[in-house]
Write a structure and sequence with these properties.
Elements (H helix, E strand, L loop, with lengths): L1 H11 L4 H10 L5 H10 L23 H6 L12 H24 L2 H92 L4 H6 L25 E7 L5 E7 L4 H11 L6 E6 L2 E3 L17 E8 L1
Parallel strand pairs: 1-5
Antiparallel strand pairs: 1-2, 3-4, 3-5
Helix pairs in contact: 1-2, 2-3, 3-6
């Protein structure tokens, strides 16, 4: 009778026949609450609405003669039970069956509806509890996901910081190497200037400015001085011009060519479009526009001289 009561209650609550059969079978007919719990847990099973097929040896329904022969009856005493225990058990089962039958016969339509209503309320409470449990589980999963995301973000930030630090160190090293290379170039240019000054100007500028040439002592008058040596006339003049970038140009000009010829030569071969002037370092003299029309011989630049390009 208990099987019929649980099954009928589930059917009256709106559950399908197949679902009700499975709930009663899988819960061992332990009451309507256990059956409802099982239905709520397995409502999303793909085979929930398929007909229930009992496993072999466990047939739901009336017991056949063969089953009653193969399986011991609950009313028959087992080998481990004494006759007294078997009698008491059979009496108790009979009383329970009569009480369930009386309860079923005495239940009116209103009582049945009230029972269904209580069961629906119980089901609603169970569903609310399940939804609350699922909500808490979802919140916990979301917290875990955010925690994992924050940890990954921190790891990514640390990697970016390390990469930026390495890049900054690399750039600093490159700047130091570039500064050292520029210093080596400046030192080389300074040495080249000094060497050219010593080669073409008779010494470095510092030496020329610091120590003026000593005055030549006049030789003692000879008793019979001869005629003065004839001054050699030069037709050509070798001019070296030091440019702004430290490089030098060397060319040969006629002694009677004006200084403007040297200036035009520098403009054509110096690679600079800036306006400039020429000066002589030893002794220092800045040539003006009027000097540009004078011949090199008149300016004292014959037979050789060193000129320096200077910005105006």
């Amino acid at each position: 009778m208990a099987d019929c009561t649980t099954l009928e209650s589930l059917l009256e609550m709106g559950f399908g026949r197949n679902r009700a059969d499975k709930a009663v079978a899988h819960t061992g007919n332990q009451g309507i609450e256990r059956a409802m719990d099982w239905l709520m847990e397995h409502e999303n099973d793909p085979d929930i609405d398929e007909p229930y097929v009992p496993p072999a040896g466990n047939v739901v329904g009336p017991v056949t003669d063969q089953q009653s022969v193969d399986q011991p009856s609950m009313d028959q005493p087992s080998m481990d039970q004494t006759p007294a225990d078997s009698s008491e058990l059979a009496t108790q089962e009979a009383i329970d069956a009569l009480m369930q039958e009386d309860d079923k016969r005495s239940m009116t339509e209103e009582e049945r509806k009230e029972q269904v209503k209580r069961l629906e309320e119980l089901m609603r409470v169970k569903q609310e509890e399940r939804r609350e449990r699922e909500r808490k589980e979802e919140l916990e999963r979301e917290k875990q996901r955010r925690k994992t995301g924050q940890e990954l973000l921190q790891i990514k930030q640390r990697l970016q910081d390390d990469e930026m630090k390495k890049l900054a160190d690399h750039r600093k090293k490159e700047k130091m190497e570039d500064r050292a290379a520029k210093q080596r170039v400046r030192d080389k240019i300074a040495r080249d200037r000094e060497e050219r000054a010593q080669k073409f100007g008779g010494g470095s500028s510092g030496t020329a400015l610091a120590s003026p040439p000593p005055e030549a002592t006049s030789p003692p008058p000879a008793d019979n001085p001869g005629p003065p040596p004839a001054k050699k006339d030069y037709d050509e003049c070798r001019i070296q011009v030091r440019l702004l970038d430290g490089s030098a140009l060397t060319a040969t000009f006629k002694a009677k060519e004006p200084l403007a010829s040297v200036r035009v030569y520098v403009q054509l071969n110096g690679g600079s479009d800036q306006d400039f002037t020429l000066l002589s370092p030893y002794p220092r003299r800045v040539y003006t526009e009027m000097d540009m029309e004078k011949p090199l011989q008149e300016l004292g630049l014959v037979p050789s001289a060193v000129l320096v390009v200077a910005k105006k």
